Amino acid sequence: MAGAVPRSRLLELMKVQCNLFSTTYNPDRLRTGNKVLRQRLRGPTLAAYYPRKTATLEDLKKVFKKLDLQVINPREDERLESIALAKLRGKGAPKKKKGKDLTKGKKKKR
């Protein structure tokens, strides 16, 4: 019975095997990321899933502003009106801090 096969002979065999089956020769078995790189790209599939962006009222507003025309957005007007009414009743968003008081509230308690 023959003794153990030398490591150099096994590495040669592995190199020939990698050439034959078009795989990466990695005798130290380091993590190379080839598994991830061999996978199909996901970008085109994900991009095709979402519909293409269409023109919005904001886009039209920018174009028409250059021509000195005005675009009316009824939803935005209604939203701004409801915010104004809420502020009159005292239900609006609180005012932002200014000056030195900014850092005062952000300290962590231990």
TrEMBL record:
PANTHER family: MITOCHONDRIAL RIBOSOMAL PROTEIN S33, SMALL RIBOSOMAL SUBUNIT PROTEIN MS33. Belongs to the mitochondrion-specific ribosomal protein mS33 family. Residues 88-110 are annotated as: Disordered. It comes from Endocarpon pusillum (strain Z07020 / HMAS-L-300199) (Lichen-forming fungus). It is found in: Mitochondrion. It comes from the Eukaryota. This is Small ribosomal subunit protein mS33. Its main location: mitochondrion. The keyword Ribosomal protein applies. Transmembrane segments: none annotated. Keywords: Mitochondrion, Ribonucleoprotein, Ribosomal protein. One of its GO terms (cellular component) is ribosome. Pfam families: MRP-S33.
